[in-house]
Every structure is written in C-alpha cells, then in structure tokens.
C-alpha cells in the first residue's frame, strides 16, 4: 500500500523534470504547496480515511540539521500499549522531499509507543508523524527542521 | 553483504520494558540521485524490517527512499516470555538479511 503512495507522490518529481529549468523554478512555490496536499492525501490513505487530530504525537528532531543525509528522529505517542488500547501504526512524512513518505512503523500491544530512526531531508521543511490507534482514531504531530545541506542528492 | 546488528538486554525480568536497537549497513540508494552523466541511479533500499519472538510479530517497518543509509530502527517491547527473537531486513533486490538472538525472561 505504501509503495503505491510513494509512486503517486513521485509524480511531482517527474513533472519537474519535464519542464524547462526556468519554468520549473518559477513554479517552485506552487509545487511546494501541492506537496503538502499530497502528503495529506498520502496520510489519508494510510489512516484509512480517519482525519488526524492534533495531539498525542511528539516528534523529536534537531532544530537545525547540518547534514540532511542523516537526521535522527524519535516519535513518542502519549498512549498506552495494552491489548484494549494501543498504537497500531506510526507513519512519518517529510512533506518537502521529492517523495514525502519516509517510513511506517507497525506496532503490537507491547513495550511503549516510541520509535527511533534516521531520515534524509531535501530542504528546510515540516516533518509530520501520524499515529493510528487500535480504536481507529488518528493523531498528528509535526516539527519544522531547518536543513543546511540537503540530503536527497541530484 | 550487509551485516545486521542488534542490541538489547538479553536477560530481562518479566514485565520489564526493553529497548531493542537495530542497524544494518546498507547504502539505501534512494532512486533520487544522479550519476556523473546526469542519469538517475536506480533505487535499491531495504524496504521492510520485521522483528518476531517465537514466530509472533512484535514490530515491523516499511521504509522508503528517504530513510538514511545504514538504517537504524529502535523500538520497545515488554519482556513476557523467553524465546528466539528473529530480525529480518528485506532488500529491493530480493535479498533477505537475518539475525536471531535468545531472550531469557526470569
């Protein structure tokens, strides 16, 4: 499923590649805006349509990432991990990357709702995480990261 | 051949919450980079990671091109039973990298 999400999201990269350089540059602001909507669409697919509410999810990221190739992050969800009520999934997106999907974690009712990973960030942007609970509700947190050197190559 | 690494307290008290730290050395070629001639380098990443205890899933991850090289994944479990923890990473090229550890719960 998440594979499909990213192939949808890479459309922006294809379109950019097709345009002449100057035209593409002129379009940049509106393209960046479209990416946020695409990230919203991608989240909607991953959450089965549940609209994420603000809260419960804390993203721990550096304020400034000097090297966008390796940006450490921790997602903490303020929720128990019992059979009756647990965090089923945590989806992480970087909406300013060529393809916003970063990683999805799928959890069981064990341990605590906290995960750590490292991501690439192409530029300064909002990183977003949505947690889906066992009752089907979805919760979102986000954090802006300033990126000194982008990490997506090209 | 990528080498997986796993670190956690392999002897735990029942009910203890354990942090499981994992990493595998892998380039995670994102599919976004270009070579010297300006051609896109094809994507080749570890796209999935899974951890099981005695065959039961505890955790899994689906990764995309924005996961950094040498992907690290840390998560938490509650120590409830002893047994074999298995960790597997799945490469785009079909390779599977695996490692296992014994967990002893007292």
Automatic annotation (TrEMBL), chain A:
The keyword Signal applies. The keyword Signal applies. Keywords: Signal. Residues 1-34 form the signal peptide. Residues 45-152 form the Ig-like SoxY domain. It comes from the Bacteria. This is Thiosulfate oxidation carrier protein SoxY. It comes from Paramagnetospirillum kuznetsovii. The lineage of its organism: Bacteria, Pseudomonadati, Pseudomonadota, Alphaproteobacteria, Rhodospirillales. The gene is soxY.
UniProtKB/TrEMBL annotation, chain B:
This is Thiosulfate oxidation carrier complex protein SoxZ. Signal peptide: none annotated. Residues 9-97 form the Sulphur oxidation protein SoxZ domain. InterPro entries: Ig-like_fold (IPR013783), Ig_E-set (IPR014756), SoxZ (IPR030995), SoxZ_dom (IPR014880). It comes from Paramagnetospirillum kuznetsovii. It holds the Pfam family SoxZ.
């Amino acid at each position: 499923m998440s594979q499909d999400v990213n192939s949808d999201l890479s459309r922006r990269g294809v379109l950019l590649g097709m345009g002449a350089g100057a035209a593409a540059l002129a379009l940049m602001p509106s393209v960046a805006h479209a990416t946020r909507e695409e990230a919203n669409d991608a989240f909607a697919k991953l959450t089965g349509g549940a609209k994420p509410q603000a809260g419960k999810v804390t993203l721990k990221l550096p304020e400034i990432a000097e090297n966008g190739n390796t940006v450490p992050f921790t997602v903490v969800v303020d929720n128990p991990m019992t059979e009756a009520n647990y965090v089923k999934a945590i989806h992480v997106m970087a909406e300013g990357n060529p393809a916003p999907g970063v990683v999805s974690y799928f959890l069981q009712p064990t341990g605590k709702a906290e995960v750590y990973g490292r991501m690439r960030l192409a530029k300064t942007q909002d990183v977003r995480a949505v947690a889906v609970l066992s009752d089907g509700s979805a919760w979102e947190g986000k954090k802006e990261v300033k990126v000194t050197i982008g990490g997506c190559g090209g | 051949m990528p080498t997986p690494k796993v670190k956690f307290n392999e002897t735990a008290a029942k009910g203890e919450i354990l942090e499981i730290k994992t990493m595998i050395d892998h380039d995670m070629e994102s599919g976004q980079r270009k070579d010297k001639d300006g051609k896109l380098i094809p994507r080749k990443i570890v796209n999935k990671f899974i951890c099981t205890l005695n065959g039961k899933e505890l955790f899994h991850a689906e990764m995309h091109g924005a996961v950094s090289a040498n992907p690290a994944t840390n998560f938490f479990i509650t120590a409830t039973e002893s047994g074999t923890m298995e960790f597997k990473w799945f490469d785009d090229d079909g390779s599977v990298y695996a490692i296992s550890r014994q967990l002893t719960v007292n």
